[in-house]
Amino acid sequence: MSARTLRAVRPICKRLLLGPKFHVNTNKAFTTILFLRNGDGNGITRRSSLDSTRFMHGNKWLYTTEVSPKVDVNAVATADPLSIFNPPTEQITTGASPSVDTNSSSVKEEFDFAIVEMNRGLSRLTKWGNFVDIYNHCQAMKNRGIKPNTKTYNLLLQVYHREGLFHECIQLLHEMIKHGIPPDLETFDFVLLSTSYELTGIYREYIWSLLEKHDLRPSSLTYEHYLESFLVLEEFEHAVDVLDEIIENKIVPTARTFWQVTKLAISLNEADSAFETLLKFEKQYPVVLPTIYMETLRCASAHFHLEGIIHCWKKIVDDAKMVPDQGVCLNIINAAARFGKPDLATAVIKLLVANRIKIEEQHFAALLASYVGVGDLKRAFNVLELARASGAEPDYVTAMPITDLIKSDVEKIDDAYYTLEELHSKGRKVDVSALNAIIRACRFAVYNEETGSREADIHRAVETYNQAEKLNITPNAQTFEMLMECCLSIKHRLLGQQFMEEMRNRGIGTSPEVYTNMIQLLCTDTDYEDAFTLLEEMKSHDILPPRTAYEAIVRKCALHRDPRANIALEEMQTVGYETPQALVNFVRTGIIPNTNVLNYMRKEPAVFEGRSRKPNISVNPELDMLQAALDNLGGDNSDFNIPNLNQQDNYNSNY
Q1: Please, how many CA atoms are within 13 Å of residue 566, restricted to the half-sphere of its CB?
Q2: Among residues 16, 47, 67, which one ends one of the domains?
Q3: Where are this protein's PPR repeats (predicted)?
Q4: Domain annotation covers residue 356
């Protein structure tokens, strides 16, 4: 044997795992390689068959492999891969005289043994070989006149499916039917699975019709392969119909079938359908598969599907003892805030704390909103104090759900204040953000029928502010910002100046929002000289004046034909704010632009101005910074039972 042949044979030896030693027998027309696990071949018994030679070494049969002529890889790729499997026209012989009856039982038995041995070798090649090795093996079958059976075709279909050759799989199926080789369910399983590479679904339905013509009852695995194409093509409705058909036929779908349909629903953001599929899975499989439940929980939480959230949470956390990631937990808390489920929000926060995950301001804001959703202001105020004690910095945005709940009814505003007094009388610390939330609610307490807008109840706001010392609360900059908004609402300049002076006396750093509100308030009067003073004071404290401050001054000067309007307009452009064309025209002509247009330009500056050179830090007191996530509040809280927080008025730090 040449060195070239040995180099070609060595990889085959390793692939078949039959040991490092082998002998070569060149007495036959083709080369036979005898693999030995040990020893030198002494005492080996030889037995011949149609496809190979077997040797008995000790009590083990050792099989030989025939080295076929070298095949050109390019020729294999371009040739018809099915031609080598056509049934031979010659009769199968065993080397006997042509007059021997080939239909005798001995010949048939020899033939059966030959195809079994060849299928066994083909099976090994499908696992460890490559396409060229398989081609050579099948070519040897054809040359020796061995007719393939159903097992042979199934092995080849397995290879073709693995290579993504669905056209070739269909051709093999046609060849089987043409030559009278009956396909079985395994045959259709591989062919159906290969149709997932085809992007129309036509072949899938054609193969399914052939399966029905052969009177084969599909198995759960057959349906799983049938569904692969639907999943690839994202035919979700059809996939659900097939899943229902499987269940109606009293066939238990595979777990992978349920998972694939659920995953497709999740990818299409169909939270309802994903949860329905999960419920069908539970009826068939009374076990918890964490992957299915976790992904369904992720989808349900992202789309505020409350029923799916509660169901999957119990399965994952209570039964499987798993911990969802922080993003999922935050989505669940937000869903609890939307639907008024404080027990659910509390359970999530407890889980995060138990796993040493820091609770941020957004977690407390959602927990507060969940209590507001059920009208429990006492615990909502306690959440603000707990957030402050935990290192978070709650502000009026955090307490916005409280403001939204009480701002339209003065009785609710009073009840909220009395709740603060009750908490203080019980020795609880009242957070300043709770007081600010009530003052901000006073900003919208009065409805003006003439203008159709809501105005501030300035007396109630001032009285609430005066009770800060009684409640042991130290006002902060946001407190005065809320008060300035109330003054601006009713254009009470004198009261605004008093609050500005008191803020300075308390040593509270003036915020850009307070400056802006005061400038806008000054511009409501005929004497607006102090507005320029405040503008220069802002710049002296290295505070970039917001665009709304410049706009208020420019509009006021233009309305009074004050030439300083052009100066303010140029300075506005110098600091990086692009001016709306309507405002420029107003300065030039003195014609008052439509108020709605100016308001829209402030809300949507990118539509008119493009991208600014500096960040837009404009603050409009008429605009809410955050909408409360409380669309559908109410309902009972019986889904969770956490008595520590539901039955006590006091919060503690053992979350």
Answers
A1: 5
A2: 67
A3: 149-183, 511-545
A4: yes
